[in-house]
Structure formats: C-alpha cells, structure tokens
Amino acid sequence: MVDDVFKALADPTRRRILDELAERDGQSLFEICARLATRHGLGLSRQAISQHLAVLEAAGLVQTRRQGRYKFHDLNTEPLERVMTRWLRPDAPEGTS
Amino acid sequence: MVDDVFKALADPTRRRILDELAERDGQSLFEICARLATRHGLGLSRQAISQHLAVLEAAGLVQTRRQGRYKFHDLNTEPLERVMTRWLRPDAPEGTS
DNA sequence: ACCATATGCAAGTGACCACTTGCCTAACAA
DNA sequence: TTGTTAGGCAAGTGGTCACTTGCATATGGT
To answer: What InterPro entries does the annotation carry (chains A, B) (predicted)?
Structure first.
C-alpha cells in the first residue's frame, strides 16, 4: 500500500499527471494525453498514459468514475498526506526539552 | 533534484534506512547494517546498504560527516518538506471562499 | 612494521519498468 | 447496421535498478 504510493510517485510522467489533475479535476484519458502533449511537450502514446493512470489508481492517488464511454479521473491527495508524515516529526519547535 | 528525492524514496530498504536515522541520527554504515538485520530481518550485504546510502545522499536526504575511519550519517528532512507540498494545497480549511 | 577494522570502487547478473505495437470491446451517431 | 470515438488487453523490447562478488584504500591499534 505504502509501497504503491512511493512507486507511483517515482516516475516524472506520473507526477506531471498529478499536476494536471491538481489543476483541473475530472479529465478523461484523451484530455490528459492532449494536455501533456501541448503543455509539457510529452509525446507519449495513449497506452503509456493509460498504464500510468492505472498505477496511480492502484496507489489510490487517482480515483475514476465512468460516464458512458468516458472515464473521468480525479486526484486524491489522502494517500500523500498519510504517507509523508512518516519522517516529518510533529515539529517540536526547538525548545522542547 | 526533485527526481532524485522521489527515486530515493521508491525503494523500501531506503525508507527503512530513513526510519533508522530518524530514530537515531549519526549512525555509521556498519551500525545501519546491523540494525537493519536485527530489527527488520534484512539480510543485505554491506555494499548494498552503502549504495542505498549513496542514493539517499545524492537526494540530499542524508548528510554525512567523516571522523577518522568512521563515516556518520544524519537524516535531513528538508528535501521532503520542499517536495511534498507540491500537491498538498496550503490547507484551505473548508471555509475559505 | 603488522593486522584488523571501516569504507570505497567496479564489473556482472537477474528482475523489473516504461514504452510501443497490434488487436479487441463498448458507446454514441448516421 | 456501419462508422467513429473512447478505452482496454496482451505480448515484446530496451533500459534501468538492486544486489552480489572481488579487490582496493585508509585509519587505528599493537
């Protein structure tokens, strides 16, 4: 579970996808492909993006909802918050003996 | 730079090492090896751990100081804090129109 | 000087990962 | 039904990664 989150974050393309979804939720696969191509210059195939989305969904970072022949993707930051407090101590501000 | 941090966090052994250093800073390579073996059941070679530490150091997550023939390792969480606020919005607590 | 300790460097190997290509299914429109 | 659009499944490939093995270096003790 935790492993899935970190593995998902390890790839720069997947982080770009998270950026895109953070900026605009509910995009379809083709929308994401188009925006990665036009705005980030990424020339990846549709299947490549689809596989990345599958990894992100397995990690719980992206949730999907089907609607007709479309499949919309939403960002879910909850796994990030849960996983990142691991080494960040509850900030004892320097004077806590 | 950012890529190095996420790549470093992608491996479970490296995360264990960060756990160890979070609990006790300033351990040498052999100390880390011993504690990973006894407390986590990890039977890795010294070189494996050494290479992991090199990755963590390249990411800035671990800082080292030499002292004679010893090399002590310290945790540095600053790259984590800098990198993880990327998708976690500055927590607008629900009533911020 | 000698020897043990603590660490570094380098090549080799097996597994995993990102990406592609090709075909297939499902939904909407004419 | 036929055609088009959105998406899924599966096999293949090149590259990267984690780990090992073997040798080398450096520090400290005696």
So the answer is: ArsR-like_HTH, HTH_ArsR_DNA-bd_dom, HTH_MetalResp_TranReg, WH-like_DNA-bd_sf, WH_DNA-bd_sf
